[in-house]
Design brief:
Low-confidence stretches: 239-246
Helix content: 25-40%
Structural class: alpha/beta
Radius of gyration: 22 Å
Number of helices: 11
Bound molecules: fe (ii) ion
Mean pLDDT: 89
Largest sheet: 6 strands, mixed
Length: 357
């Protein structure tokens, strides 16, 4: 008797980017061949387009789970090539998208409904996507882990609630497909994570979770400065030269300082500005000559003035505040920002560069 197998109701293809350890998913309705791609990676554009072509997929949507900090999305390029629409959480405030999603919204491919679940915490605009017993969790819930919360408007309390109240309330057998895995794991289930997730599982309290998250002490993603600004525009129409690379340092800032006629105040006529994102007290105790003090958290108040410069360079003490300020300003539409993200003013002092008080 011949073996026959019915068509699966939904085909899920899991693809991997080795450099960023990102999973991209291609979901296809086998009957209509309509599909969506979730979290596509710029470096894998050719692979993904070939797969779409070979499988005869009519791509309807490019879905992004959040603004990625570790790779540039290819959503904009895939849209150009396939005509698919880009779907994003409206809270992520991304430019030039086609479908703004809210919690509970659904996208349809063939007979299947993909439900958007707002799961903030890793970033404030994170979404997970549920379809027929499978949840794509982005960087909210990872296999035996979770996304970090120390930049991009990350919030550990929000993440705890997203994981324990939203995702853990899905049926036990729900398959969990994460946005990343760094150890070769590919898939989990809600029951497994509720039981074995070391950060949020085993009935961990919010206080336990907050303590774990506060003590992760992770290095910044190596591509954060290259990835976040273009990702705020679906990975397209950005000026790669406007963004710094990980090797941009206080030495580089010193070169900038030497080469440019840096103005002491925010003047539309000058083309370069160095900004110190530390507090007023830290700034008063000594700073890069001619730098302007814009304490971290107040940068959006200076948006209009900052727009007038060809280049704005940010620094702080360790790089973390400057990095977050860069992300914030990029989301608000600036593409002229560079920051020192892996060191700061202590290194300026160490190198014996001039100090202004
Ligand atoms: Fe992420």
């Amino acid at each position: 008797m011949p073996i026959t197998s019915p068509l699966p109701s939904l085909s899920v293809k899991q693809m991997f980017d080795r450099d960023s350890c990102t999973y991209t998913y291609l979901l296809i309705d086998p009957k209509t061949h309509e599909g969506v791609i979730i979290d596509a990676v710029k470096e894998q554009l050719e692979r993904d387009l070939l797969c779409i072509e070979e499988l005869g997929v009519e791509l309807l949507y490019c879905i992004e789970t959040h603004v990625h900090a570790d790779h540039i999305t290819s959503a904009g390029s895939i849209r150009q090539k396939t005509g698919a629409q880009i779907a994003y959480n409206q809270l992520a405030a991304i430019k030039s998208i086609d479908v703004e999603l809210k919690d509970g919204d659904e996208l349809t491919i063939g007979e299947h409904k993909i439900k958007a679940i707002s799961t903030p915490g890793h970033t404030h605009g994170c979404m997970s996507f549920y379809v027929e017993g499978i949840v794509f969790t982005g960087d909210c819930l990872l296999i035996r882990g979770c996304g970090r919360t120390d930049f991009q408007q990350g919030d550990s309390e929000d993440l705890y609630h997203s994981i324990t109240q939203k995702l853990f309330s899905l049926p036990d057998v729900t398959l969990v497909y994460p946005g990343h895995d760094y150890n070769g794991k590919t898939c989990s289930t809600i029951a497994e994570e509720r039981q074995w997730n070391p950060r949020a599982g085993q009935g961990k309290s919010l206080a336990d979770f907050m303590q774990i998250m506060q003590n992760l002490n992770l290095a910044l993603p190596k591509k954060i400065n290259e990835a976040v600004p273009p990702n705020t525009n679906c990975g397209i129409n950005f000026r790669p030269d406007a963004y710094i690379h990980e090797e941009f340092s206080m030495q580089s800032l010193h070169t900038v300082w030497q080469q440019q006629e840096v103005q002491e105040t925010l003047k539309p006529s000058s083309n370069t500005l160095i900004v110190d994102n530390r507090s007023e007290e830290e700034y008063s105790a000594g700073h890069v000559p001619s730098s302007q003090n814009i304490p971290f958290g107040t940068e959006s108040l200076h948006l209009e003035a900052l727009k007038d410069f060809d280049h704005v360079y940010l620094y702080c003490h360790s790089g973390r505040r400057a990095q977050t300020a860069l992300t914030h300003l990029s989301i608000l539409g600036l593409d002229n920002i560079t920051c020192v993200s892996h060191s700061g003013f202590p290194q300026w002092l160490e190198l014996g560069y001039p100090v202004e008080r």
